[in-house]
Amino acid sequence: MTATPIRSAPPSIRTLAELRASGWRSRSVKDELRANFTHALAAREELFPGIVGYDDTVIPEIANAILAGHDMLFLGEKGQGKSRLMRLLPRFLDEWLPYLDIAGSPVHEDPESPITRAARELLASTAPERVGIAWWHRSDRYGERLAPGTKFADVIGEIDPAKLIGGTSMSAEDALHFGLIPRHHRGIFAMNELPDLDELVQVGLFNILEERDVQIRGYPIRFDLDIVVLFSANPSTYNRSGKVIPQLKDRIGSTIQTHYPRERDLGIAITRQESDLDLGGEFPVVVPPFMEQVVEEISRTARASRFVDQASGVSARFALANYRTMVSNARRRAIALGEKPAVPRISDLAHLKASAVGKLELDLMGSHQLTEAQAIDAIVAEAIAKVFAEYVDAHDLGDIADVFSKGARIEVGDMLPSSHYEKILASVPEAWNKAFEVNASDDAAVRASCVEFVLAGLWATERISRVEKHGRVSYEVRNK
User: Fold this and answer.
1) Number of folded domains in the chain?
2) Are 333 and 381 in the same domain?
3) Which residue has the higher pLDDT, 25 or 176?
4) Arithmetic mean of pLDDT, 4-10
5) What is the chain's Cα-based Rg?
6) Last residue of a domain, one of 257, 286, 306
7) Starting from the edge strand earliest in sequence, which strands make up the sheet with 464-469, in order?
């Protein structure tokens, strides 16, 4: 859904006289957002498509900020959807916005309230029938910038030396080169990673947030900007003294606190939605519920792990990359063995290091000099144990450990065919039958995945031992 109907072409109005005759009235960007958001809210539209888990927390705060006419700071760890939320706000702008069609103008001038001298002179000297009107689509009225390396001239503006050489006075607005913020007059501008913004630029934002005007190098040139300014930041840097000037913090109307999924099922839903994987095709993929749960639990465990620097956060992209790797390795096996469907197994998680390394920052105190790979192994084992404990309660899987005390030894691997599992477990019917309880399916590939989950769970809860060798894993009686 959208806040207003989408037309493939802008209105046919081409002159100021036609625009005035149409009944169009100028309004500020914040009034525009407020009116369209109110309409969407009253119509019970889906306000932020694709955003999961924020209905009762983040979205109400954004709604209040829009209705209050506030600029916003999105404060949260990496991978919590801050940028996506900011990029969804333009859907509450009018679909098309009229502006004065002036060749070479750096801004999209309001036909009834221009801010530059050239536009004001045009309206004063030209009949409305001869003043051109063009249209600006809402998708173009949003701009953003990453703070690191950003200079004052990039976002606010600078004196243009070429214009000075041409004879333009330094005190004239014609001498200015406009930055991104003035060029988004009548739109929305977002600054990502605010604490990394140079202090000089932060100072330059004071007037924009409070007075809505631009001052460049102290010259007496004023532009009354109409703009909504958004920011994003990580709490660990935003709250650090000296990173963001207090006067700038004070001028931001609302702080929107984002968060990671509060429940595992919400995290799984986000991963499914964002994975963008086709699970069908020539080699279809069936992902057992416990494998989805383990992948999400890996992220949840990492967010509480003593091995991980919690100030850096564990992005939702961590779970997403791991999920894609797991599915891809299952499909690789299916293609190589000619086996359908492809069903992910615990042994596929051995390949997660490729997608997980670099996405975690270790806590040098808590990790006790572990390598990143070792920390990931420990986190994966803990996640398997947590999920397995839930299945033990439901299916009494602990009994299977007894068969290993009688000398059973089971070898698994990510490139072994599913038929292998059925053969090796023929002598251990308890394990095979319990695997069927975990996921009631007669498909050999699904049951092979169940067997690996049960075995890995018994190992992770220290009931049996595991030996890794040449890409294979053997489960056997635990040495006491």
Assistant:
1) 2
2) yes
3) 25
4) 55
5) 30
6) 257
7) 410-413, 472-477, 464-469
Range of the domain at 400: 264-477
**In a shared domain, residues 364 and 385:** yes
Same structural domain for residues 320 and 212? no
Q: Is residue 11 part of a domain?
A: no
Q: What pLDDT is attached to residue 5?
A: 43
In order of 190, 398, 465, 469, the CA distances from 473 in angstroms are 50, 20, 10, 6
- Asked if residue 293 and residue 205 are part of one domain, the reply reads no
Enumerate the H helices of 175-288 as residue ranges. 180-183, 199-210, 235-238, 246-251, 264-275
Other CB atoms within 10 Å distance of the CB of residue 387: 25
Q: What angle do CA 108, 113, 114 make, to 5 degrees?
A: 45
The verdict on 179 and 152 lying in the same domain is yes
Helix (H, G, I), strand (E, B) or coil at 191: strand
Please give the full DSSP string across 212-242, using - where no structure is assigned. ----STT-S------EEEEEEE-HHHHTSTT
For residue 239, the domain's CATH number is 3.40.50.300
User: In this predicted structure, which of 121-130, 186-195, 404-413 has the lowest mean pLDDT?
Assistant: 404-413
Instruction: Check residue 436 and give its pLDDT.
Output: 58
Share of the chain above pLDDT 90, in %: 52
CA dist., res. 295 & res. 177, Å (int): 50
